[in-house]
Amino acid sequence: MGKLLKVLSLVLVSLTFVFGTGIDADAKKKKKKIELTEHENAMFDKWEVKPKKRAKAVKDMRKKPKFVGAVKCNGSCHDAYYQAWTKSPHGGTFDLLKPGVRKEAKERVKLDPEKDYTTTPLCLRCHTTGYGQRGGFKPAGSKNKKGKDKSSKIDPEEPNKEQVGCEMCHSVAGGSQLRAVMKSSKGNFTKAETEAYGQRWDYSNVCTRCHTHKNTPFKPEVHDKYKFNFEERKLKVHKIADYWNEDNADQKLEKKDERAKQVGQTEKTPLVIEDFKVNDKGKLKFKKGTKPYNSKKKTFNYK
């Protein structure tokens, strides 16, 4: 019996040497080499990205876009802008949905000033970041299919997706890809290069997403204060002059003036503005063909 076992062991060892265990093959499948396109390599050459770092960067750039939150823009990238934003009207939009806040304004448009609107889909669309879209804000009570809580975490000291953040104005479907582009290029990008990854430059158009949308109850016919003037309003968005300091001075946008001379495709042909409604189940639904980005076809929808 002992001899038989020894023989069988030798046979198994031999087979392993000949055919392998299959582990190496699986590992190779998992570590599938990423082939960069000629266009991608040209961009990385321009940005002087080292060959070893290109695969990871392009992997992030090829992922489906999703909302990541304003906090991701803070820190080592856009600290002064983030700090200024937190003090701007956009940095406190979620708070306006709470009971007892802006009572007069709510009464003016026939809303209950004592009602909690922080979970109301129609309100969350314009008072938060990316609500109803991939990676966007999820209100209290949100659960996955297994019943686990998936609501967005809110930190009173660090505003994020619960307010109208950077991505609502600067991107079509979230800034996950843009972060990879900006990191690789170190700010040395053109408007066209970032547009390919979902950045938009049609700011006067994108503001109509909420401020003059047909679903908003705050219409000019209700009160003159609701007349929207883009040139006036934009001055309240990035009051960054007071937020530069020794720690973030190196984050100033060196190519900003140079890019201002460029004309992006989204400026020539603005992107469509989402139209939406709340269905019978109380869920927000976007009307077909009204999203600025088609995630299935990976195409942009212009007006």
Q: What does the model show?
A:
This protein is mostly helical and 303 residues long. The chain has a single domain, classed as Flavocytochrome C3, Chain A (Flavocytochrome C3, Chain A, domain 2), CATH 1.10.1130.10. Helices cover 35% and strands 3% of the residues. The protein contains 14 helices and 4 strands. It has helices at 2-19, 23-30, 38-47, 51-62, 79-86, 103-108, 121-127, 166-170, 176-185, 191-195, 203-206, 230-233, 256-260, 265-268; strands at residues 276-278, 284-286, 293-294, 299-300. A two-stranded antiparallel sheet has the order 1-2. A hairpin with a 5-residue loop joins strand 1 and strand 2. The relative contact order is 0.12.
Short description:
The chain is mainly alpha-helical and 303 residues long.
